[in-house]
Amino acid sequence: VRVDAPEAESFQTGLRDALTRHRPESLVMVEAGEYGVQKTIEQTCDDLGVPVETRPDRHFLCSHPEFAEWRAGRRVLVMEHFYRHMRQRLDLLMDNGQPAGGRWNFDQENRRAFGRNGPGLVAPPKRFDPDAATRRALADVATQFPDNPGSLDRFFWPVTREQALTLLDDFVGQRLAAFGAFQDAMWCGEPFLFHSALSSALNLKLLAPREVVDRAIAAYHDGAAPLPSVEGFVRQILGWREYVRGVYWSEMPDYLEQNALDANRPLPSFYWTGETEMACLRAVITQTLETGYAHHIQRLMVTGLFALLLGVRPREVHEWYLAMYLDAVEWVEAPNTLGMSQYADGGLLGSKPYAASGRYIQRMSNYCRHCRYTPDEATGEAACPFTTLYWDFMLRHERRFAHHPRAGLQWRNLARLDRGRRAEIRRQAAALVGSLA
Ligand SMILES: Cc1cc2nc3c(=O)[nH]c(=O)nc-3n(C[C@H](O)[C@H](O)[C@H](O)COP(=O)(O)OP(=O)(O)OC[C@H]3O[C@@H](n4cnc5c(N)ncnc54)[C@H](O)[C@@H]3O)c2cc1C
Ligand code: SF4
Distance between CA atoms of 90 and 214, rounded to whole angstroms? Predict the structure, then answer.
């Protein structure tokens, strides 16, 4: 169904039309990626008396029943436990029942920042010229959605299986070895650094997660990449990707409605344009508008962090992430945004809010060197908005988190602030919030 055809008015009308035209005995489908799509199909078929048979999606490494079995009886969900379960069950990166290298986790070696001179020369991901079908699709988007944010000028993503395999080769050969060490680092003008840029190819099922993981592990066995990098990469796909899918399907449909921190402010309009004096947000949003991509820490600790500290309505943040990213699809986006980034699920996905001040961004990037604000300052002319809002966030949620078993330590720092200082921070935050409206 072409996007400009009358029956393309909505997915439901297109489906209803097709079912009425073809009058099938039954509809056999692979389970949908999104809850809403699954329900729409079931409802439409039900209305027309067409039975539906849903088959498991073999693209994923953990089925819904397996996730439900793993989850049963657990009061607290911890991704690390799920990840170890998956490593053991699939016998991946295991030596005689023990984790390869004797450890499950190489965080000590990983998650470094670059020195003053930055990452040096990094080979960017391979780019692909749009083929005829892609050019047609780009033209359709330009005519049907002229006012949507973002640019179509530099579309270079893989759209075929061959291109996706080429991008996988390119990542394993060029960037995997340094992936672990610098997976949390950010640098001006370097959107991809050592990341794979494979999420859209994975989500579109041009690549299977198992083959991606197997390629990375083979690089470790061949001596092409060190274990900390390979383990860090495997963890993202075998751990996080499968885990958030399991959480999504077991929590929907209520998951989208949660707002544990009662966040009710609107999303600042600069999220749609990148026009802000905050250098970190400007860089990440502009890059996203140009490429449809930002890496995990840019999403979590720049755009996500600012919305969390400001107290933006989680549903609006969710809609922004769904609209802006090339790899966006609800089963993976919603738990990352509403759970990990905004704490809207009250700690189901991450045990405490990912709250940090501008100092975190200063440590992990060079954005602050290009900014008119100062990350150490919470009040005054040069105060970094992240730092102001960080302390304001801590004050707003003091009662909730001061005695929290995992977050309490961070909140206890508030004891350093006397009443005068607290009032000063609150005033600065209120003025900042007013200026963003
Ligand atoms: C607020 C927020 C929203 C997000 N929205 C999406 C989304 O809509 N679609 C999406 O695919 N990912 C999403 N992520 C997860 C992650 O940021 C992206 O998968 C990653 O940045 C894609 O870049 P990459 O392929 O270079 O990843 P790499 O860093 O190279 O990681 C390798 C692969 O691991 C998987 N992966 C890594 N981190 C995660 C994670 N936290 N959850 C699930 N899978 C992960 C991805 O498939 C990725 O391609 C989101 C994260 C946050 C914090
Ligand atoms: S000073 Fe603050 S606003 Fe500016 S780049 Fe650093 S963290 Fe971002």
Answer: 11
Q: Which residues of 367-397 are buried (b: 16+ CB within 10 A; e: fewer)?
A: bbeebebbbebbbeeebbbbbbbbbbbbbbb
| Binding site membership of 360 for ligand 2 (Cβ less than 6 Å) | no
Q: What are phi and psi of 427, to 5 degrees?
A: -65, -45
Helices 161-174 and 209-221: angle between axes, nearest 10 degrees: 30
Chain CA centroid to CA 360, Å: 19
Contact between 248 and 318 (Cβ < 8 Å): no
Q: Sort 133 into a burial class: Cβ within 10 Å, 0-12 / 13-18 / 19+.
A: exposed
pLDDT digits (tens, 9 = 90+) for 297-316: 999 999 999 999 999 999 99
**Alpha carbon of 380 to ligand 1 centroid (Å):** 36
Measured by CA distance, the residue closest to atom 8 of ligand 2 is: 280
Distance CA 265, CA 281 (A): 18
Percentage of the residues of the chain whose pLDDT score is greater than 90:
89
The helix-helix angle for 419-436 and 385-396 (nearest 10°) equals: 120
With a 6 A CB cut-off, is 364 part of the ligand 2 pocket?
no
Say how far apart CA 383 and CA 250 lie, in whole Å: 42
